[in-house]
Design brief:
heterodimer; A: about 450 residues; alpha/beta; D-Maltodextrin-Binding Protein, domain 2; 5-stranded mixed beta sheet; 20 helices; about 45% helix; about 15% strand; globular; B: about 280 residues; mainly alpha; MetI-like fold; about 75% helix; elongated
Amino acid sequence: MSAFRNAFDYKVKLQRGACSCGRHSSQSAHDLDEALEMRQMQDRVVEGAVMRALFPRDEVRRGFLKAVGAGTALAAISTLFPLGLAKEAFAQGAGKLEKTKLKVGFIPITCATPIIMAHPLGFYAKYGLDVEVVKTAGWAVIRDKALANEYDAAHMLSPMPLAISTGTGSNPIPWTVPAIENINGQAITLAIKHKDRRDPKDWKGFKFAVPFDYSMHNYLLRYYLAEHGIDPDRDVQIRSVPPPEMVANLRADNIDGFLAPDPVNQRAVYDGVGFIHLLSKEIWDGHPCCAFSASQAFVSGNPNTYHALLKSILDATAYARKAENRKEIAAAIAPANYLNQPVTVVEQVLTGTYADGLGNVKKDPNRIDFDPFPYDTFALWILTQMKRWGQIKGEVDYAAVAKNVFLATDAARLMKELGMPVPDVAKPIVVMGKTFDPKQPAAYVDSFAIRRN
Amino acid sequence: MKPSRPWLAPLLSAIFFALFVGIWHLATLPTSAAVQVDPEYAALVGQAAATGTKSAMPTPGEVGAKLWEHFRDPFYDKGTNDKGIGTQLAFSIGRVLLGFSLAALVAVPLGFVIGMSPLIYKALDPFIQVLKPISPLAWMPLALYTIKDSDISAIFVIFICSLWPMLVNTAFGVANVRRDWLNVARTLEVSRLRTAFQVILPAAAPTIMTGMRISVGIAWLVIVAAEMLVGGTGIGYFVWNEWNNLSIANIISAILLIGLVGMLLDTLLARLARAVTYRE
């Protein structure tokens, strides 16, 4: 079949095939190779079809390639015709996984629940993937390892892919958020000695910790403080501390409190070091926190693997959403291989029946919840805060960045395939009583009294 | 005083150790707190928090039990992120030896050249002086960014930190070979290459070995910190992972093992150094 031959090689004659493909000694060797190189061959088919359409006479094509060389020809034709897209569109139908052994990095916090639990509970295996989930020491390291392609996909804070894509704090590399992992699930924890200073207006001079500069934690804490008239840059100190070090720092009196992901908050309570002042859902109910992320290159280079991976994450997220599964999940992700925490701590976070550190048992089943849908509006809100606090300078094309990074269309299509309800309209974003209008991001930024832009 | 009683020093060591453990035990004895809390609440928090205090340092008994647990099964493998302490130590030692050997391969020949030529010594001296005091961990972000592989980056950090002591010591040793010996070699018309291998190398060997001993010590110090930064495997990762869990007993066990391995590495090189020393 001449369809599988390199249309960019001038030595190859497209219109005449000697044997079934001309490269193998026997048919069985051909079949084996064909199975292995399915994708490559599909690409050739697309290239061949395109080349034949461009050069109806084969001599002309061969003469052209001989004259300019295959590389130049490929580049020239790619500008006329989106070869990459055509190849991808063609490959979608085949459904063969380009890669089954994957590495996914995570930070040991409950936000990563879907990514982690998909391993012990077999969600990756269900979609034919052999995924190794690798615990990573901190956000900067997970970013660098993901950028270095050591990980195929990674657990990130949802603002990080936006920061990477816009080149804030690193070189701009197109990065994507195929799914959000969790909503809510963070808290402000203060040292026990501050148990009588619950009013944020009394917090001048406090030292706070957040996990990373580009984190929902940073933006939510800043928002909360600013709404109470505390300037987060001048009246208090906010530093970035990796989650595992937070409790140790709180214990050592290095910091007065933190807005941190769980299980860090619950762990501080468990060790009698701090108390939970406020759950993040009380600042913005339904806010996104962590994201499942991958490079644009991985998404477009391995479309089938990407879809299988995303499906396993979506499936795991849906499973995690059900309250009755939470205890089982807590027991699965607490061991040293994953979170390395006492089971009761993880269970309190996931079930929402928890000790608050001041002697009360509180119940809030929505303390953490899981909703994979990457709404554009989430990205828009995050971008407004990055702009507000001076992390991004100059003009921002809010809508375009949000659309390119948060892959809502893909998630919607796969959720439909998996028979999950797809949200059609974005949920309204209300942060501390103030509604965010996604159509007016610039005006929203300007509406705050305390800002740095 | 004559060393008439050889058992005295070990006895004193044992007494010091017993004293240390005794004080530690007394200092960490659980205090009986009388704070009453709701049993439902107590079930949700740790033992210390239930009695209204912060969680305390572990007692020597707890650390001993943890150590025993590690010694009984040092090479278990419960997944990518949970391997036995023996496996973790092996990863760290492997990294140190690899980085250290690479550094030796570069430092010894380079040190030789520098030591033999005062001109090159003067030309390279400013670079060495600037690069030498840089904390090896400061290279880590740069290494991760350029090498794009965390494992190789860790080895690179070991390489760079063990390079300088070996380089400087080799150069020093080579430059300070007794003039008489070199003159004798020259009188006998020994070729330069032969002089280097048969006169200078044996003469400078003790100094070079001292450099290596310093290097391996530094490399072992640095690997723990480097692994805490990049994670994955190794004893540094183990410490970080247990810090994550605030498991002080595990961290103390790891500290003890880090010390023991460091001592072993040092003794090993000290033996080698003794083998190449000579009497003048």
